[in-house]
Automatic annotation (TrEMBL):
<feature type="transmembrane region" description="Helical">
    <location>
        <begin position="25"/>
        <end position="55"/>
    </location>
</feature>
<feature type="transmembrane region" description="Helical">
    <location>
        <begin position="404"/>
        <end position="426"/>
    </location>
</feature>
<dbReference type="InterPro" id="IPR005829">
    <property type="entry name" value="Sugar_transporter_CS"/>
</dbReference>
<protein>
    <recommendedName>
        <fullName>Putative proline/betaine transporter</fullName>
    </recommendedName>
</protein>
<feature type="transmembrane region" description="Helical">
    <location>
        <begin position="61"/>
        <end position="85"/>
    </location>
</feature>
<feature type="transmembrane region" description="Helical">
    <location>
        <begin position="197"/>
        <end position="216"/>
    </location>
</feature>
<dbReference type="InterPro" id="IPR005828">
    <property type="entry name" value="MFS_sugar_transport-like"/>
</dbReference>
<dbReference type="InterPro" id="IPR011701">
    <property type="entry name" value="MFS"/>
</dbReference>
<dbReference type="GO" id="GO:0015293">
    <property type="term" value="F:symporter activity"/>
</dbReference>
<feature type="transmembrane region" description="Helical">
    <location>
        <begin position="312"/>
        <end position="331"/>
    </location>
</feature>
<dbReference type="Pfam" id="PF07690">
    <property type="entry name" value="MFS_1"/>
</dbReference>
<feature type="transmembrane region" description="Helical">
    <location>
        <begin position="378"/>
        <end position="398"/>
    </location>
</feature>
<feature type="transmembrane region" description="Helical">
    <location>
        <begin position="163"/>
        <end position="185"/>
    </location>
</feature>
<keyword id="KW-0769">Symport</keyword>
<keyword id="KW-1133">Transmembrane helix</keyword>
<dbReference type="Pfam" id="PF00083">
    <property type="entry name" value="Sugar_tr"/>
</dbReference>
<feature type="transmembrane region" description="Helical">
    <location>
        <begin position="283"/>
        <end position="305"/>
    </location>
</feature>
Length: 437
């Protein structure tokens, strides 16, 4: 962490010379992450529509579980993507890696929109679906770690969370945009049209969105320095495991908590409202859009607050909020759709601090020459454990226990893991705590 700016003189110099560069990095990182997560999360929102098209079954629950299993399978590719794109980012520069992740995701989403269904291609439709999802997972594996690292290296020490908030702003807004597009298509098509061709439209929108983001990312300056080609003496992934195993373990714990809590709201809650509580599909999509959109737009405010009160403290408050609020909020959702919407918002407000804190803290745990790889590995391992599995585990818990509130237990466990991990970070040296806030 010796590369971090310290002292008032460094702050003054940054304000005079680098404000535009930091702003461009934050916008490019946030917009890119938005596009990535729009592409990646569409499948989760449309799973309830796509399930019978790719996994025909007499039991709708079995078809949905199969579709959600494919959703989780994509996450298995994320650590590999993190290693590959992390290697590129730590060896050859952050910008090259972030451009590569974006192109990979855009092509994967376009392919998703052209897939044949089971009725058209039989088992090959399912095979192609899995392959495309794995490509998307591979791409997403390098995105978040790269964006968080890139923005962190472009921002001064006292504004790490303020600028770092653009990564969760982008990722969360990507989910909101996906829900909005899914809601729009659902509203303007009949059930037959949606199942026939309507579900393809959101995926095909990936092309113009990807081109827009490519333009934004080509305008930013590299942060890796003149010696980008040198990197660590060992492969970055090997160097992380050998030199900073504790930082990696702490980052995995933080990621487990951040993703395990957030993904219940980002991907499962729509399924919960439609399947478990019986609310209509289109209004549920719009509620998800509104709730996730409000939370996303509040991320920059959360970043400012985190820099003021302390990043560690803000993260602890948010994980504790998830542990306390989730169960009672889900317990009142059956009363009416409006109450469900308010309860949904009360749960998701906690993800502001959880995500802003996580995205800001993790890059500061690793040395610069392995930072892209370290953040990507820590984040993706946590995502595999608790992110991609969240909707599947939630549906499985309800099916096995018969209790529609059982997914709240998953959130509580994830939040507790986050509190333990952050407590471990808080016990670092005084210098580290000053850097982490």
């Amino acid at each position: 962490m010796t590369d971090q700016l310290t002292g008032s003189a460094a702050t003054t110099e940054w304000r005079a010379e680098d404000r535009v560069r930091a702003r461009r990095a934050a916008i490019a990182g946030g917009v890119g992450t938005l596009i990535e997560y729009y592409d990646f999360s569409l499948y989760g929102y449309l799973a309830i529509v796509m399930a019978p098209l790719f996994f025909p079954s007499s039991d709708p629950a079995t078809a949905l579980l199969s579709a959600l299993a494919v959703f989780g399978t994509a996450y298995l590719m994320r650590p590999l993507g993190g290693i590959v794109f992390g290697h590129i980012g730590d060896r050859f520069g952050r910008k090259k890696a972030l451009l590569a992740t974006l192109v990979c995701m855009g092509l994967g989403s376009m392919a998703m929109g052209f897939l044949p269904t089971h009725a058209q291609a039989g088992i090959w439709a399912t095979v192609l679906l899995v392959v495309v999802r794995m490509v998307q997972g591979f791409s997403a594996g390098g995105e978040v770690g790269g964006s968080a690292t890139f923005i962190s290296e472009s921002a001064p020490r006292h504004l790490k969370a303020t600028y770092g908030a653009f990564t969760p702003l982008g990722s969360t807004m990507g989910f909101a945009m996906a829900a909005a597009v899914a809601g729009t298509v659902s509203a303007f098509t009949t059930d037959v049209q949606l199942e026939s061709w309507g579900w393809r439209v959101p995926f095909l929108l990936a092309l113009p969105l990807t081109l827009l983001c490519l333009w934004a990312r080509t305008r930013v300056e590299e942060t890796h320095g003149e010696d980008a080609d040198s990197g660590p003496a060992q492969a970055p992934v090997v160097a992380v495991f050998r030199r900073q195993p504790l930082a990696l373990l702490q980052s995995v714990g933080i990621s487990v908590a951040c993703n395990g809590t957030a993904y219940i709201g980002l991907t499962y809650m729509s399924i919960h409202l439609m399947k478990s509580l019986g609310y209509e599909r289109t209004p549920v999509y719009w509620i998800a859009t509104a709730v996730i959109g409000v939370v996303a737009l509040a991320m920059p405010l959360g970043g400012v607050l985190a820099d003021r009160i302390g990043r560690l403290r803000f993260t602890v408050i948010s994980f504790a909020g998830f542990a306390i609020v989730t169960y009672p909020a889900m317990a009142v959702m059956h009363h009416s759709l409006w109450i469900a919407a308010i309860a949904y918002l009360l749960i998701m407000v906690n993800t502001i601090g959880a995500q802003v804190g996580s995205y800001t803290l993790m890059p500061l745990l690793f040395d610069k020459d392995v930072r892209f790889t370290g953040v990507a590995m820590g984040w993706n391992l946590g995502v595999v454990i608790a992110g991609g599995t969240a909707p599947f585990v939630a549906v499985w818990l309800v099916a096995k226990t018969g209790n529609i509130l059982s997914p709240a237990v998953f959130v509580i466990v994830a939040a507790v893991i986050g509190l333990v991990s952050v407590a471990g970070v808080a016990r670092r040296s005084k210098v580290a705590q000053e850097q982490l806030g």
